[in-house]
Amino acid sequence: DAKTTQPTSMDCAEGRAANLPCNHSTISGNEYVYWYRQIHSQGPQYIIHGLKNNETNEMASLIITEDRKSSTLILPHATLRDTAVYYCIVRLNNAGNMLTFGGGTRLMVKP
Amino acid sequence: DTAVSQTPKYLVTQMGNDKSIKCEQNLGHDTMYWYKQDSKKFLKIMFSYNNKELIINETVPNRFSPKSPDKAHLNLHINSLELGDSAVYFCASSLLGVNTEAFFGQGTRLTVV
Question: pLDDT tens digits for B14-34?
Fold first, then answer.
């Protein structure tokens, strides 16, 4: 699986959009970008994933650059409950879910 | 209903003991996993198992063994516990295949004293 690079931490004001970047410059053509988050003392939670196109669901939006070397997870209206560690993971979609977690980005949403 | 449940939530035990952590999923998934999260908060895959194949992370000591009585359960047995085994262990499940997401349990905090 390709390696990802994320900022260690970020702050966001409550109600504002949180934009979490991820670099994956060595991604190959058949690798997907997945985002999970881990709220304190809980298990990781799936957020969204994509291959080439931008994706949106009820939790977030995923913007993938045209060259696929980076992506941004967008939480459109961050709430205090979105405070968590966010993990960007690149993996082959036929490799099961043996996810390789990096250090992630610790997002702190502040009132 | 909890999708992936682990028991116990907390486990404190002495070095040298043998212990088990149970995991059950009610999602009808065919693949289950164990992950370890150490004190530095890094999550590492330990095992991936479905009814056809067990994949073991080569860094996992053979004191750790997964046991699956049926497709809905994947228990983790640990023999001769060591201080370094102290961590939070997460069970997860998914369907094996394309476009699938993993569902994680709430974790079991193991403390070896």
Answer: 999 999 999 999 999 989 999
